[in-house]
Amino acid sequence: MTSDNAAKQKLEHFMSGLAKRNPGEPEFQQAVREVAESLIPYVLVNPRYDEAQILERLTEPDRIITFRVTWQDDTGHIRANRAWRVQFNNAIGPYKGGLRFHPTVTQSVLKFLGFEQIFKNSLTGLPMGGAKGGSNFNPRGKSTNEVMRFCQAMMRELHRHIGEDTDVPAGDIGVGSREIGFLFGQYMRLANRFTGVLTGKGLAFGGSLVRVEATGYGAVYFMQNMLATQNEDIAGKVATVSGSGNVALYCIEKLNELGATVVTASDSSGYIYDPNGINEERLAWLKDLKEVRRGRIREYADHFGCDFHEGERPWGVACQLALPCATQNELDANDASTLVTNGLIAVAEGANMPCTLDATHLFLNKQILFGPGKAANAGGVAVSGLEQSQNALRISWSRDEVDGRLKTIMRNIHDKCREHGTDDNGFINYVRGANIAGFEKVADAMLAYGVV
Ligand code: NDP
Ligand code: 2IT
Hints:
binds NADPH dihydro-nicotinamide-adenine-dinucleotide phosphate; 452 residues; 5-stranded mixed β-sheet; Rossmann fold; alpha/beta; binds (2Z)-2-iminopentanedioic acid; 3 domains; 17 helices
């Protein structure tokens, strides 16, 4: 049997076992398959990992805490939601990862996110394990008081399971600085401790400069590093961005600063196409719409007189750079093919797993520069790690200090991907590179611990 065939057979055997153990969890199975495609050939030539069953152990969370959150809405009705914290792996540091509030949140979604987080956090070079949490609570249409009551009710249970040396949550979809403030305030009351138990905090109470911008900026820094390998640059390129939340807004900001023209943004109702670009002034308006007024993207099109495409995603628009920054599986193989036909040269995943596995394969087969989320969007959790360091030291670094460290971390991640992902023909497969580089450190720590 050739080594290729042996790897294929082992992959299918491994995935069929995983599917049996995790029925009805398509997102989790998808995330594991993407990683296993890279890692199985690698463990076959590094049998110490296979003998210690590292892949099998890595794909089973350390624990999942699931609980009811009961709260009262503004009309006095009692509401019940379900919440989780998936503590996936703490081999290289305390559990770390965001909290997501969205009606589509399921255990499968949080397991995929927690699993990816293990590799992402390892790639940052900082001592952070992998976790994710959240709730099927829908923040849309809720008053600030309702959101506050929900966050307080959630923390009534969550506080027992987290701690600065145990598990440090942060934001994700539907959880921004407002929610982190409510969660942190409640943690302090319950634990009577002021400590860095959450990241993404406000600057007045232990937050780090540049954390708000970090994921979006980091994705663009990663894009810059990928383009440099082909003597290309961001200046003068047309970019499509999806989403208009935390990641998308600061991705657009950095792309503008570096001279790209960003022609799209979206939310779950559709996308806007602004052919002249979402310039600085328009971005300021969009930030106010999304961060302050919590409005819909359609209002941008109404205000600036450009096109709104209801119920559609932006991948039909011609561009050289694509940065999906909204949610998982928002870019499929048809979209990927259209993008390539229209002149795409590079993709940086600002969101987690925004490209389907078929789309990812298509990009790699066409030798497009493709930065997978666990590498390209690691800037957010990296600056969270820097927030933890500042909290532990009881100091605050300047904006330039944090941004400088972020740039260095993104360059290092890029270089690790290149080291582990370069094909014989020179093409850099960042997916394989990120998976192997992220895996090595965690797997070596697990080997050192013996059978635990
Ligand atoms: P936000 O809640 O700030 O924004 C999310 C954006 O995505 C909104 O525009 C939202 O539109 C859109 N969106 C959410 N769900 C869907 C859906 N099911 N279909 C279509 N559009 C959707 O979240 P973030 O910007 O923080 O997160 C975006 C992505 O980036 C996620 O994949 C997240 O996991 C990832 N990420 C976030 C990090 C962070 O630091 N925040 C770090 C690394 C990755 P609408 O308002 O209509 O729902
Ligand atoms: O997906 C992610 O990396 C995040 N949502 C950020 C996690 C964090 O702990 O800052």
